[in-house]
Amino acid sequence: MHTATYYIDLLLSGITVGSLYALIAIGYTMVYGILRLINFAHGDIFMMAGFFMVYASASMPMAVALPLVLVMTVVLGVLIERAAYKPLRSAPRMSVMISAIGVSYLLQNLATYITGGLARPYPEIAVLKKTLAVGTLSVKVITIVTPLLTVLLVVALVLFINHTKTGMAMRAVSKDFDTARLMGIKVNNVISVTFVIGSFLAGVGSILYFTNYGQVSPMIGAMPGLKAFVAAVFGGIGSIPGAVLGAYIIGICESMIKANDTIAIFSNAFTFALLILVLLFKPNGMFGEKLTEKV
Amino acid sequence: MMGNKKRDLILSLIFAAVITAVLVFIDKRLHYSMLASVIQKASIYALLAVSLNLLNGFTGLFSLGQAGFMMLGAYTYAILTIPLDQHASVYQYFNGGVVNVCLPAFVGVTAAGIVAVIFAWLVGKPCLKLKSDYLAIATLGFAEILRALIQWEVLGPVTNASNILMKFPKFDSILTPVIVCAFCIFLIVLLINSSYGRAFKAIREDEVAAEAMGINLAKTKMQAFLTSAFFAGVGGALLAMFQASVQARSFTSAMTYEILLIVVIGGIGSVTGSIIGSFLYIASSEWWLRFLDDSQTYLGVNIPFMRGGFRMVVFSVVIMLIVLFYRQGIMGTREFSWQGIIDFFKKPFAKRERKAVKDNG
Predict the structure, then answer these.
(1) Which fold has domain A7-281?
(2) What Cα–Cα distance (Å) separates residue A64 from each residue in A67, A214, B128, B191, B314?
(3) A86-126 pLDDT, tens per residue?
(4) Do A272 and B253 touch (CB under 8 A)?
(5) For residue B190, how many C-alpha atoms fall within 13 Å in the half-sphere facing its CB?
(6) What pLDDT does B351 receive?
């Protein structure tokens, strides 16, 4: 029988992983809400952010590298939108999705080429690596910082969407693309803002995730990316609180499953099983808006 | 018109005879060459691409579960055909395993298709009613679930868990995969040109209209899904024979993406395109573009950026260019016809789009 500490440890690591999924999931859910596109490249943006950090920290102090990495991640996200998705705005949805898969393939191959396909150790951020002792528990600073920072960012984002003009424009575009355009909203700018926010959060997530994980490799983005997408679907695509809740549930369940050796191999499969169950019984997710298919 | 039909038949027979002769020659003289290996792998990928195209291109169902069905096929084949005296060494961690049969190769390949169909039915029953991108992500998810199941220690005595399966029969001649794949693709073409195929295309064009015209959506989608899974399973079994080993780890979603990209290169909705696409893709990635991965010196100048991995970067850039600027791919929705070839030689590079559309009806 395990002690309570063991379970608290599992819960904490689940919350950490869940927070990271949440940060990535917001990018998915916002892009899907506006473009109706599963941005398969989002997980790879997350991975690229990891490599930016590896290379940036090698040549400059951490205080410069951190903001620079976030800026580069945002630029990459917007660049991908401009180059790969914007030209296909009027194309069938399948073409855009294939383009997203193509971008993901390109980023993975690019990362493999630049790094020689090897995993690189992630630079240590001293403040986050410290350990605090709380009674019998010893907790890393990052375990506490991650959920706090996530909640802070999510609250800020929700306020931004509900109380600013740009936020209102985003809601309008996600409700009805064409009408929003007729009302004088610059749809392309709104989409760019969406990608800026999504990539920024993926950048923050990548810093927290890789600090915890210790190394970056070219293919590492795919799985967290897909899981974050499942979190977004679980919460109801387009809903930010939903995506965050979904991410925490997936993170915690995953950490529990991983702890049990007999079923540890199903930690990824579990996420997809959850996805299929949600799609079957509650296709709009827990908080999703009701969508009706127009003829 | 009758004259044309006769002419086409004769041309096809001559073409088939020439191809067979060339293949026999390659088989005898160049059995271990790069050419022979490309021909085998490309034929298998052609079958896989056509089977995916049947769903994505002809029925308009965006499925990303191909790798899962291939894996089922490969494992079924491997498990059923490993010679009995090899079980002890292959299943060394599981006391020789629990499967005590060894079937002939062709039974194994057929069983591979059937097992894939059974699982496709289980997957399709709940998933096929989902809309486009949800279907994609659900099928992708199912493939991942299956991959985890196969690697599960508890199923080890059957699947050998995450260990490699090998020592099952391989191809004895490069003609075998080519003939099997050509026959399977021929069957798919027959299906596409039948009334079933027309129902598939109707669903692709407009689901609501197709339903109004009396097409049973659920049933027809399921037919397309099962057919595609069958041939994906057969393709997976052939791939196992070609590679001489099977491991669940290699059947990731990246494999599905690879086949999807072949379909895109060839043209979504063209069987000919998928075949040309897979030969181009495999030949380039395995052979013609290999030099990009080695450092090269031209005219005494060493090109610094050509090293391991550069080939795949060039490749993915080309694919992105096709996706963005040449969305029709090589063939669009056109198909190969002798008349088309003759017209082409009479007046190369003329605009023939409208006629092609009319031909496809």
Answers:
(1) ABC transporter involved in vitamin B12 uptake, BtuC (1.10.3470)
(2) 6, 20, 50, 62, 33
(3) 998 888 888 888 899 999 999 999 999 888 878 888 888 87
(4) no
(5) 7
(6) 56
* Nearest residue of chain A to residue B320 (CA atoms): A102
pLDDT in tens, A19-45: 999 999 988 888 888 888 888 899 999
Beta-bridged to residue B245, according to DSSP, are B166
Q: Of A96, A101, A227, which to mutate for an interface test with B (greatest number of B Cβ within 10 Å)?
A: A101
- From chain A, the residues in CB contact with B253 under 8 A are 222
pTM score, whole prediction: 0.88
User: Is the residue at B279 inside a domain?
Assistant: no
Residue B310 pLDDT: 84
- At residue A150, does pLDDT exceed 70? yes
Nearest CA to CA, how far is B153 from chain A (Å)? Answer: 8
What is each CA distance from B320 to A43, A104, A188, B346, in whole angstroms?
A: 18, 10, 21, 33
A253 touches chain B (CB under 8 A): no
Q: Which residues contact A191 (CB under 8 A, 6 or more apart)?
A: A34, A35, A81, A86, A173
Local confidence band at A280 (pLDDT 50, 70, 90 cut-offs): confident
B3 domain-assigned: no
Structure tokens at B100: 């005590």
- Report pLDDT for A281: 82
Give the C-alpha separation, B264 to B327, whole Å: 8
> In chain A, positions 63-92, which contact chain B (CB-CB < 8 Å)?
83-84, 87-88, 91
pLDDT score recorded for residue B361: 36
| C-beta of residue A19 within 8 angstroms of C-beta of residue A150 | yes
CB burial of residue B145 (10 Å; 0-12, 13-18, 19+): buried
Q: How many domains does chain B have?
A: 1
Phi/psi for A121 (5° steps) reads -65, 140
Q: Can you read off the two tokens belonging to residue B55?
A: 């769903």
Residues of chain B with pLDDT under 50: 354-361
> CB distance A91–B327 less than 8 Å?
yes
Determine the structural domain holding residue B98 and report its residue range: 34-251
Q: Please identify which residue in the block is written with the tokens 């034929």.
A: B43
* CB-based contacts of A170, cutoff 8 Å, min separation 6: A30, A34, A161, A190, A193, A194
Taking CB atoms and an 8 Å limit, are B145 and A269 in contact across chains? yes
Q: Output the pLDDT for position B249.
A: 87
Distance from CA of residue B119 to its chain's centroid? Answer: 18
- The tokens describing B241, both together, are 């024979």
pLDDT value at residue A260? 83
User: For residue B68, what are the CA distances in angstroms to B74, B116, B120, B230?
Assistant: 10, 9, 10, 12
Locus of tokens 């169902």: B61
Quote the ipTM score.
0.84
